[in-house]
Amino acid sequence: MPYCPNCGATVTDDQQKCESCGTRLIEKEKKEGFFGFLFFGIIALFIPILGYILAALMKISRPKTRKFTLIVSTVGLLLWLALILIIVYIGLDLLIQILGGTILFF
Ligand SMILES: [Zn+2]
Asked: Measured between alpha carbons, how far apart are the two ends of the chain, in Å?
């Protein structure tokens, strides 16, 4: 059974608001989705970084492969930036929900 983050009362998963204090409860899936994205975002950052390191190492030995690695790394980096925007968007949405619950009822 989950608990209300504000007053500690027992709440059900499908409840939108805490019955005893009125705090808005954030949907569990949304919160989990956010942390999932955040985790993926951190992991995804290693791909372009690794690519750039590889490209730097290939500087002298393999100029053609190096160019390809640089392109792949840059695409990876752009995809990562798009992912960060999604994370910020979901994060702000969660923050508004948290603040909204606090301001509205206190
Ligand atoms: Zn409560």
From this structure: 25
Token pair in block for residue 98: 């948290």
CB 28 within 8 A of CB 22: no
Query: What's the CA-to-centroid distance between 31 and ligand 1, angstroms?
Result: 18
Q: How many domains does the chain have?
A: 1
Task: State the pTM of this model.
Answer: 0.53
pLDDT digits (tens, 9 = 90+) for 42-75: 888 888 888 888 888 877 677 778 888 888 888 9
Ligand 1 centroid distance, CA of 91 (Å): 22
Q: How distant, in Å, are the alpha carbons of 33, 37, 55, 99 from that of 94? A: 11, 13, 38, 9
78 falls within a domain: yes
